[in-house]
Design brief:
The complex is a heterodimer of chains A (81) and B (236). With 81 residues, chain A is an alpha+beta fold. Chain A has two helices and three strands, in the order βαβαβ. Chain A is elongated. Chain B is of the alpha/beta class. In chain B, the strands form two sheets. A nine-stranded mixed β-sheet of chain B has the order 2-1-3-4-11-10-9-6-7, with helices on both faces. In chain B, strands 5-8 form a two-stranded antiparallel sheet. Classes of the chains: A alpha+beta (81), B alpha/beta (236).
Amino acid sequence: MKARVYVTLKRGVLDPQGKAVCGSLHQLGYREVTDVRVGKYMDVTLGGLPRQEAEKRLRAMCEKLLANTVIEDFRFEIQED
Amino acid sequence: MKFGIVVFPGSNCDHDVYHVVKHLLGQEASFLWHKDTSLAGIDCVVLPGGFAHGDYLRCGAIARFSPIMKSVEEFAAQGGMVFGICNGFQVLTEAGLLPGALVRNAGLQYICRDIYLRVERQTTPYTSRLKAGTVLKIPIGHGEGCYYAPEEVLRALEEKHQVVFRYCDAAGQVNAESNPNGSLRAIAGICNERGNVLGMMPHPDRCAEEILGNAQGRKIFESIMHAWQQARRTRI
C-alpha cells in the first residue's frame, strides 16, 4: 500500500519561495499567474494494514512528524497495490 | 553551576557554548548526547545551534523526538532552565515547549551577520542582568529564522510579556529595515509563560569575549548564572 502525503503552508503563512517562483513566471511572460504556493509531498510505503487502520495511523504520522500543524496543512491519498 | 549542552547529530555550536560557560565563566559544563536520558545534576540545559539531523523535513522536526527531549520536557515542566539558541530555538518550537514556528527567512537567503536586538523584559533568568530597553549587538546565522505564530498566539505572547528580544536598529528602534528575516512583530526570542524556557535566533555564544571583537553575548550567560545564584539563595 502506498500513501501520497501532501504538506502545504497554511493560508496566511508567508511563502517567500512561492513568491519568487511567481515572480519568475511573470518574467517568462505568464502574466495570468496571480499566486504560487510551494508545498511538498512524500510517498510513504506501508504494509500489512487494513485501509481504515492505515488512514488512522497516517493521520497520526502527519500530526506528529510529517507536518507542523502550526504552519502547515496536510492531506493524503492511499493507493492500494 | 552546571550547564548541560545537548549534542544532536549535526549540532555545531555545542563547543561554542561549552567554551563560553567553561572557559570564560568558569562554570561546570558537560555534553549530553541526544540519546542520553539523564539530566542529573544539570542546572541549565542548552540546546545549541547547528543543523540537528540535517534539518531534514523541517528544522528541529526530527531532533525533537531524540530520546533526551523527553527528559528535557520533564526538566522544563519542573521549572528547570532550558535555553535554545538558533537551531535550539527551532527544536523548542517543534517540541511545543515554545509556541509558534520558525520558517524560511522572508528574503529566502541564509543570513550571517551582526544584528541589534532590544531586551524587552528583565524578569527572566536569561536577562536578569539586562535592563529592559538595552540594545545588544549579536550575530545571527540562519536560513529559517522568521518567527511565525497565528495572530491570537502573538497577542497572547504580548499580553503575557513573553517576547524577550526584538530585532531593532542600533538606537533600539524596531522597524522594517532592522528586521533581518521578516519575523512577525520583529520577534528574535521568546520565553514560555513561566519564563524558564527561552529560545532565541541570535547567537550570544558567538560573541562572548573581546578577542572576537564583541563580548555582549556574555551578558546573557551572566544573567543565567546570576538568576541561578539568586534562586539558590532564596532556597537556602
